[in-house]
Amino acid sequence: MRDNRIKTFYTSKQVLQKDNTNFSKSPLKPKLLIEYLEKQNLSAHFDIISDFRRFSENDFLVAHTKEYVSAFFKGNKPLCESNSLRWSLQFADSIRYTNSSLYHAIKHSIEHPEHICFAPVSGMHHATPERGGSFCSMSGQVIASIKIFREFGLSGAYLDLDGHYGNSIEDSRYFVEDLDKAIPIGCNINPFGRHQNYIDDLKEHLEDLGEKILSGKIHYLVFAHGADSHESDDLGGQCSTAEWMQSSELVYDFVKDVSVKMKKPLPLTLALFGGYRQDDFDSVLSLHTADLVTCLNKLVEARIHFEPDVKVEEPEA
Ligand SMILES: [Zn+2]
Known about the structure:
Blueprint: E1 6-9, H1 29-39, E2 46-49, H2 57-60, H3 66-74, H4 89-111, E3 117-119, H5 140-152, E4 156-160, H6 168-172, H7 179-182, E5 188-189, H8 195-214, E6 220-224, H9 241-262, E7 268-271, H10 281-299
Parallel strand pairs: 1-2, 1-3, 3-7, 4-5, 4-6, 6-7
The structure holds zinc ion.
The site of zinc ion has 7 residues, from loops.
């Protein structure tokens, strides 16, 4: 039913070329993850699509004020660094590609529901119409879903399993007229609580989401399993490794089940979102990889053996 390779919307242009000592490694993460997948001999499971167009300033005006978009791309401080990241022309250009990657991945998943799509991106779910925030520059989810709604008349849901509440969608509702149609209320899903409570909350949300999909209110799903919902992350910590993996399994079992009930594949796009281990960034990459492997094993029966390798935190001296 599903093609066995994940369509990956990745170009080196979506990556910060020189890490200029930002705390967040997210601007580098797409490249680090692609290299990590190669090291783990998993590249054969991913088809890289690089020839998608970058966003223009007009695309960003869908979700942001002229003042912010102009300041961001011109490098006018303080607004261009309201994301808490150091500005450079190349970094600003990379944002045109990360946001466009998500849009093109979702669009492809709608046109080819048998393809699982993947936008290896982060840094969008805290931006608001007037500014960036907490390592996020532009509201990529809002822009992608508005463009999809205006082109196809379809509505989407976001399963945001980053460790932090993704406020970008809710904070944009007053600014973007048709956002309630593009991403209906209740479809920006961020599980609440820790450990078993988190798992239980996720299960409840999935039940509700299933009803919305089967009744034709939601037409595509975007799933971002941020690694900062892992308890060892520097900036998060809802789940143990087992719980983090269980969350992935619950989501992919859900996608499989709902697709069987629909008698066609639910359009699915994956994204990365947060993950901030300063001591061992491979732990972050390993969790993201384990999530992708779970997707392949559950949805295309890939039978890959991969255990997440999450380094135990050093106790503070
Ligand atoms: Zn986060």
